[in-house]
Amino acid sequence: MEEEFPTEFTASSLTGSIVVRTTEQGLPVGISVEAAELRRDPHALAAEVLRLCQKSAKRAGLARRNQLAAAGFDPALLAATGLPSEAEVAAAEIVEEQEYDTEPQSWLRSV
Fold first, then answer.
1. In this predicted model, what pLDDT tens digit does every residue of 9-55 receive, in sequence order?
2. DSSP state of 2
3. pTM score of the predicted model
4. Which long-range contacts (CB under 8 A, 24 or more apart) does 15-22 make?
């Protein structure tokens, strides 16, 4: 029996304080944000959520590509699908982490 393909995918910030659950296309179906993150600039928070949705979609695309490869799809056909390869996803995640400010706004914690 073939394993069912997941309907939801997740991605989280480096600190784990923001977690998104998305569809395969990256549409958010759930967002978890720790209270401390709500003190951030709203535009920065929205940009982080959007980045995580895109990250989740790329990982979902890779999972779909791997599923098709396991089903015996020809590598040339896989390339034509536009689904990202493992190297493309890894490279994109490295670039995203370098481009976005993932450091905490403050090292102080609220008491």
1. 999 998 899 999 999 999 999 999 999 999 999 999 999 999 999 99
2. P
3. 0.82
4. 15/102, 15/104, 18/45, 18/48, 18/49, 18/52, 19/52, 20/49, 20/52, 20/53, 20/56, 21/56, 22/53, 22/56, 22/57, 22/60
Angstrom distance (rounded) from CA 108 to CA 51: 25
Strand order in the sheet with 28-33: 9-12, 18-22, 28-33
Rounded-to-integer distance, Cα 11 and Cα 32, Å: 11
Amino acid type, 97:
E
Specify which residues 9 forms β-bridges with. 22
Q: Which two tokens stand for residue 30?
A: 């759930």
